[in-house]
Amino acid sequence: MYRDKLAKVILLTLLFPFAIYMLGSCILGYIPPTDSYKKAPFQLEELFNDQMAQYGMSIDVDSVNYAYDEYFTKTVPIQCEDGSVISCTMYTTSDRRKALIEYIVFTQELTGKEGETIYIEPILKFMLDTFYTVTTKDKDETVQTGSGVSYNEAIRLCNEFINGTDESEEFFAYPREGFGTAITLKRTADDKPSISISLVLAAD
Q: Fewer CB within 10 Å: C terminus or N terminus of the chain?
């Protein structure tokens, strides 16, 4: 009898820390990340549909399944009231709901028609407001002294690129001091001319 009780005490002693760890992991799994540059696809959808509704745009991230190649990716079409063809490609840490976005690309196909509306600038503003909320406090400064671009400088560079002929442009933004990531603009002139804007995110 004594041995049975002792065995139960030892077993409970060994299992208790594991149970606490599993419970903590489950709780943390339901808590959304608080860093601005850490977003799950469903969080991106909510923010995009709220901010970009003024441009007649919306997105449904669950309308497309993941592609399982080297990475977890999905390319989701943006619904545009004016018929513009825009897509959002996300590279995530997994295919689960709480997966974090590691890399994101918005691409707009261009028709070349006179007066065509290019939405890359408002998409950049959305990206900065969503992932770099620190930079919106003073739009002419960065949190990293002497490095990176400010909110307004990023918009200026974006407009110069859209109105120019360069094939690519890259600059860095800082969501926090000591940590910056690249924002890249690209132009293609193949069968389907397009302009894209991409952002590397920290999903650690």
A: N
Q: For residues 89 and 81, give the distance between their C-alpha atoms in angstroms, rounded to a whole number.
A: 20
Beta strands in the chain (DSSP E): 57-58, 67-68, 72-80, 86-92, 101-109, 168-176, 179-188, 194-200
Q: Give the three-class secondary structure for 104.
A: strand
φ/ψ of 112, rounded to 5, equals 85, 0
Pairing of strands 194-200, 57-58: unpaired
Q: What does the alpha-carbon distance between residue 120 and residue 55 come to, in Å, rounded to a whole number?
A: 12
- Other Cβ atoms closer than 10 A to 151: 22
Closest by CA to 45, choosing from 25, 69, 22, 62, is: 62
For 18-71, write each residue's pLDDT tens digit: 444 444 444 344 445 556 678 899 999 999 999 999 999 999 999 999 988 778
Backbone torsions φ then ψ of 50, nearest 5 degrees: -75, -50
